[in-house]
Amino acid sequence: MAILAIDWGTRHVGLAISYAGVYAKTLTTLRNNRSLLDNLKELTKEHEVSELVVGLPKNEDGSEATVAKHARRFANQLKKKLGLPLVFEDEHLTSKEAVRLLQGKVAPSEPAIDAASAKLILEQYLSNRNHKINK
Q1: Cβ neighbours for 69, distance < 8 A, ≥ 6 positions apart
Q2: Is there a contact between 54 and 89 (Cβ–Cβ < 8 Å)?
Q3: pTM (predicted TM-score)
Q4: Domain 2-133, CATH
Q5: pLDDT in tens, 32-42
């Protein structure tokens, strides 16, 4: 079973996936429109997703950013639609890091940045989870 990470944005939603729970890879970027939840449902079935990780925007001090309420609302709708376990992972600075990582490899378009951000969110989640297991 796979873990799907989601970097929610007002225009695009970046996706990354891990099949073994160790490595993360970018999957795709979807438009944030009326068919988003249906598209995500189809993708989760196709990739046999068993868990969702949604990036939660936070400020420097660790408090939730203003846009976090929109990410939480989206996550609640997603959980109702898919019925899968869902966790939040801090996405602080992932977009800036994604731009840095993409420079020189591809033109850092918004969709590419969103998918790379989802990968960073998933890598962080997997690292934190694996660290807890090994304690």
Answers
A1: none
A2: yes
A3: 0.85
A4: 3.30.420.140
A5: 999 999 999 99
